[in-house]
Automatic annotation (TrEMBL):
InterPro entries: AB_hydrolase_fold, TAT_signal. Keywords: Hydrolase, Lipid degradation, Lipid metabolism, Signal. PANTHER family: PLATELET-ACTIVATING FACTOR ACETYLHYDROLASE (PTHR10272). One of its GO terms (molecular function) is hydrolase activity. This is Alpha/beta hydrolase family protein. It comes from the Bacteria. PROSITE patterns: TAT. Residues 1-31 form the signal peptide. It comes from Streptomyces aureus.
Length: 421
């Protein structure tokens, strides 16, 4: 994005009228992301915050490989003169992780881009070591090939890198899933390709242009952004099918989940492409509207519904009774579905922000309001445990046929934070 000194960071609420919450955007007319309207007081000492992610709980070590994928049949929809190019991370259960190093959550190029442009409001720039966080995935560890492994795709929120869902992708891999996390190039804050080339988001400029043109242009941008994400996902599905056909993966059911616009993409892809057997949407509205609770501009998945199983998990205040697009999906769908609310959660609670933001606040002396404004009042450990339990149980039930997903049958005393709607 434009980083000239005359570009001023102006912050806004996610619920503000000009926000594009259908995409998880909170960009003002200045074209710069934001999340809160309050200034943050920070200590003058030049401390740098460093974070740790929670360790996965499954029985397998986690291996990983990053892949550059080029869709030679599709021109890039955001820039001219090139084919569509993506980066994906593949997480998988490993036979052994000995002597294989753990990989960082973000590369240095991705971290620099994320420091400049992110959806975390006015966190101090240059004070957070985004590239210093290690995941629990080990580079190139040999895969455990005992039996077919269900495949789960992951799509992040608009502006977010694929790595901001690491807690859940590592968790699913540790329970025996092959997880493919997708970066949507020129949508994500920054994508680093082999050789060190970094492509940064174009959406702030696109949103500024659309706002100048009027409401119809803003809706058109939302439609385009979601359509690009679905096209990216279907291309990745083609690559998964190729891996099945060549024996690199044993054929198994495929599911998908995502946060915000990634949750939208998961359900829309399930609607458009029968290869997705089950989808989980983590607080993603399914309409092209400026507020989750607005009527109108429904997506086709909300209008038509789906036949397969899906899971909705919302922040506090988001459920099918007050999010019209969720209600439409619910009413038009024939298959199994659940609508859950995580009490005390905010939109970003369904990302790695849940564990990272409190650590940053403690180390940099940020006020508690910064933490609760971004990830809510639910304690981080409880939020992480609940997401892990319900997302894993959902895919266990519908991709593996395991009855152990009893958390999905009704309220559980183990997770009183989770409300069944």
């Amino acid at each position: 994005m434009d980083t000239n000194s005359d570009t001023k960071t102006k912050l806004t609420s996610r619920r503000r009228v000009l926000a594009v919450s259908a995409l998880g955007l909170a960009w003002t007319a200045s074209g710069v992301p934001g999340a809160t309207a309050t200034a943050v007081a920070v200590d003058s000492a030049p401390r740098t915050a460093r974070m740790k992610l929670p360790a996965p709980t499954g029985p397998y070590g986690v291996g990983t490989v990053s892949l550059r994928l080029v869709d030679r049949r599709r021109a890039d929809p955001w820039v001219g003169g090139r084919r569509r190019e993506l980066m994906v991370d593949v997480r998988y259960p490993a036979r052994s992780v000995d002597s294989h190093p753990r990989v960082p959550q973000m590369t240095k190029g991705e971290a620099a881009g994320f420091d400049r442009v992110n959806n975390f409001g006015d966190l101090p720039k240059g004070r957070i070591d985004w590239s210093g966080t290690e995941t629990f995935a080990h580079l190139g560890a040999p895969p455990d090939r005992r039996g077919p492994r269900p495949v789960v795709l992951y799509s992040p929120g608009v502006g977010d890198p694929r790595t901001l869902g690491t807690t859940l992708t590592d968790e699913l891999a540790s329970h025996g899933y092959v997880v493919v996390a997708i970066d949507h190039t020129y949508d994500a804050s920054a994508v680093e390709f082999p050789g060190g080339r970094v492509e940064t988001t174009l959406l702030p400029q696109e949103f500024e242009r659309a706002q100048k043109e009027g409401p119809e242009a803003v809706v058109a941008l939302m439609r385009k952004t979601c359509a690009v994400r679905v096209a990216d996902t279907r291309f990745v599905l083609d690559e998964v099918e190729r891996a099945f056909a060549t024996g690199r993966l044993e054929r198994a059911p495929i599911g998908m989940f995502g946060q915000s616009a990634g949750g939208f993409a998961a359900l829309q892809t399930m609607h458009d492409d029968g290869r997705i057997a089950a989808a989980a949407n983590l607080d993603g509205v399914l309409a092209y509207v400026s507020d989750d609770h607005d009527e109108g501009e429904l997506s086709s998945v909300a209008r038509d519904g789906v036949d397969g199983p899906f899971l909705l998990m919302g922040m506090d205040g988001d459920d099918r009774t007050n999010v019209p697009s969720w209600r439409a999906l619910w009413e038009h769908s024939d298959g199994w579905h659940r609508d859950l609310v995580l009490r005390g959660a905010q939109h970003a609670t369904y990302t790695d922000a849940t564990s990272m933001i409190p650590q940053i606040a403690r180390q940099l002396g940020l006020p508690q309001e910064t933490v609760t404004g971004l990830v809510g009042t639910v304690p981080a450990a409880r939020a992480i445990a609940a997401q892990r339990a319900y997302v894993t149980a959902f895919f266990d039930r519908w991709l593996r046929g395991r009855a152990g997903g009893h958390f999905l049958d009704g309220p559980s005393s183990k997770f009183p934070e989770v409300r069944f709607v």
